[in-house]
Structure formats: C-alpha cells, structure tokens
Amino acid sequence: MRESDIQEFQLNLQCCRSLKKLDLSDCKQLRSTPNFNGSLSLEHLSLGGCSSLTEIHPSIGNLSRLIKLYMRGCEKLTYLPSSICQLISLEVLFIPHCSSIKKLPDNLGDMKSLRFLYASYTGIKQLPRSIEMLRNLERLKVGGRKLEAKKSIYGRGVHQIQYSMPTFVSDLRLKYCNLSEADIPKDIGSLSSLEYLDLSGNSFYSLPFDFSKLRLLKVLSLNDCENLQTLPSVSNLENLRTLQIKNCQRLVKITELDNLPCIEQINMIDCSSLHNPFNEGFFSAPALSFPSRKNQLMVRHLDMVRHLDMVRLLDMMQLDLEIFLECKEIPEWCRNQVTASSMCLTMPTHNNDEYNFLGMVLWFVIDSLDAAPYPCHRISIAHKETVIVPWRYSLHEAFDGHRDIAYIRLLMASNERFDGEMIKGGERIEAWSEEVTVKKIGIHLLYLDQHGNVISLPGDVDHSYSKYPKRVSTGLSTPPY
C-alpha cells in the first residue's frame, strides 16, 4: 500500500488478525486511517509522508501490541487522539515535521513502555506534565530549526517545562525552543544517564545547572545561543567527545576546560566576545594529552572491534582532537611558528631517558572563504611519505562567511600516522595544506619528562623554507582522500 493514491483505506482489518506490519507511508491522498479494531497483532504502523492525513481513528488505542508508530511529515494532522495513550507496548513515537500538531495528549505519561519520543519541527509549545511519568524514556527531541525560530520573537518552541525529566533519558534535544533560564528543566544536571544534550538556539543567558553529575555525557551542543554569556565548567566530563558552541556571540567566559580525556572536536566559531581559552596548560594536561587519553582510545578500540563498528573505528583512528576557533593569531606559548603557508621544523635532540615524545599541536590560521569544501593538511615526518590528515567538517557548511579562523589539531605520537616511527630527536617535520589558504602555522612539540610532567621543547624553524602547493579548485564536491 506504500505510495499509493488511495484516499480511504477500504480493507477490513478484522480479516487481518495476524497482520504485524502496516506500511501506508507516502500515501499523499490518504485522509484518514482505517478502523483498527480486529488487527490486534499489529506491531509496526507507518504513516510517514501522508501529507493529507487529518484524522487518526480512535481505535488505534486498541493496538495493545503496537511497538512503533511512524508519522513523520503528516502536515495536516492537527492532533493525536487521546486513545493513543492506551498503547501500553509502544516504544517509539515518531512525529517530526507534523507542523500542525500543537500539543501532545495530557495522558502521555500512561505510555509506560515509551522509550523514544521524536517531536521536532512540530507546533508543540508545551509538553504535558505527565511526561515525568515516562520512566523508560531514553530519547526526547522537540523544538524547531534555526530559520523557524527567527520568524517570530517567540519562535516555535517549547516553553515552561516546569517538572522533572524522566530519570533514564540518554538523548535530550530541546533545540530552537526559545527557552529562558526559567524554562529549562532544573534537573537536567541530575540526569546521570545523559549522553547527548542539545540546547541550541535558545534564549537563556546562563544555564541553571552544572555538568558535574553528567559523567556519561558525550555530546554537548549549544550552538546559536546568542544570549549565552557564561558556560559552567565542563571539567571532568571524562566521556565528552564533542563540544559545540558555535555562534554564541555574547559568550565571554568558559569557566574550565580541562580533564577531557576523550574530547575529539570543539567548535567555537563566531564566538566573537570570547577570548582564546586554550592556553599551554590545556594541551599539557595529562588527562587530555596522553597516557590516559591513549588508554581511553584503546578501550574504545576494543569495544568497537567487539561490536564490529568498523566505520566508527576508522573514524576514531583518523581523529585525535580538532578545534575550530575565532582567532587570527597563534599564541606566544606555541614555541615554533611562522607567518607563511608552509613550515619546516627540525625537532630537538634529547636523551630518551629524560624525555619521551608524546605528540604535537598543529595551529593553522586560515582563510575559510578560500578553501575547498573538504580541506586537509599535509604533514611529513623524518622524510617519510606525506600523510594527508582530513578535517572533519566542510568549511563551506561550517563557517557562514567568516574569513580568518584558527584550526588546531592535536596529533598523538601513538597515532597510526606516525607509522610506528620512534622519534629520537633531530627529525624534520614539514606541514602545509593544498586545500585552503594558510596564513600562519605553529607547531608545539610535547614531551613527557622523567617526573611525569608534560612539557614543551623548542625546535629549529627553517625560516628559508617555502613550499608552494598548487591550490585546488574550491568546487570540489567530494573529499580529496
């Protein structure tokens, strides 16, 4: 029945008592659902893309075995029948882009088995208080998108969430909801199972909770929070991998950024009031840099192999830590730097009993408008074959017209790009890019001394060195690797 032109469902479902899956997706002319009486074995119902659907038969509440209900993009549907709350086995309720739905049924909390509630890009402005009764809820997504939120001073968001969040939520996304401090659930800071938190595009000036109890948090996204002025400490979030605070133009202070052994990506583009928070101590912190970070990577490596997650495994092996920052200068603590598009550095000679090479910080100041969509940088160590290091995101998608930005990459000596090379001192390092205009380059070498401290040693910069890479066309549509 999928993608058919039917306006009404004629089949008597009482003749389909063993039916487990009914897919009416993209039936653009369908105006109402069938009477579900008699189809008590139904487990999976798909109504996504039924753009003319205006009514769901109340008998849907009799589907006691229904597990998944998909209704994405039912644009003319204005309400969900209250009987839907009788679906005691329902685990997934998927209603994004149902733009005419203004509220959820008051008795939503009766759906005791509900684990995933996706209601993004709807007209819902307030969640029912009974949501705190959904003790099995793991993922909650509501709110709009950036362009929609700016159409009105009030946006299209959810307001006044003045009650407790379900304890076991692991994925919470309240994006572009125009939430103030008073609207944000105060107990978010107590959601010990939370792994993904996205509060992008809201109107709060500060967060009314801290992150100290969110030990499992992996992704924190606060993009486009244009009123945000201070960010609580994210120190000791030992599982945090991604921190996104792009376009927080009033952000002036980040309390602490340390002890982040799993951090992979930080984006602070268009935070024009924020001073560079990355001092030498950030990269010298043992928890960030090295042996604990290496141990964390090994644990994740084994876990991915165990679950045959090879895509994620390859991504992890290619990525150490990358940072995007609104910054035109390389800080003075970065020992070796040039104002040029390429750099050559000879590493210091040292006694391996005194110093153990850990890795390096590469700091590029680039022109983001003069770049291929998928930039990389090149690095050659000890005259080995040039290694191409891809950047994670397309510059054309990420930076909305900003020109000079800093791209910072922490490369660990344990990374496969060093190809098992034992760094003994005196090796030659060359760095450049062929996909983006580089204005300045810095290389900060990191070592572990015999007392267990992370320190930096200066190298010998060849100021006469120049490499003139041929710039590629900015019209690339696929990565150059």
From TrEMBL:
SUPFAM superfamilies: L domain-like. InterPro entries: Leu-rich_rpt, LRR-SigEffector_domain, LRR_dom_sf, LRR_R13L4/SHOC2-like. Gene3D superfamilies: Ribonuclease Inhibitor (3.80.10.10). Pfam families: LRR_14. Residues 172-273 form the Disease resistance R13L4/SHOC-2-like LRR domain. Keywords: Repeat. The keyword Nucleotide-binding does not apply. The keyword Repeat applies. This is TMV resistance protein N-like. It comes from Nicotiana tabacum (Common tobacco). The gene is LOC107811271.
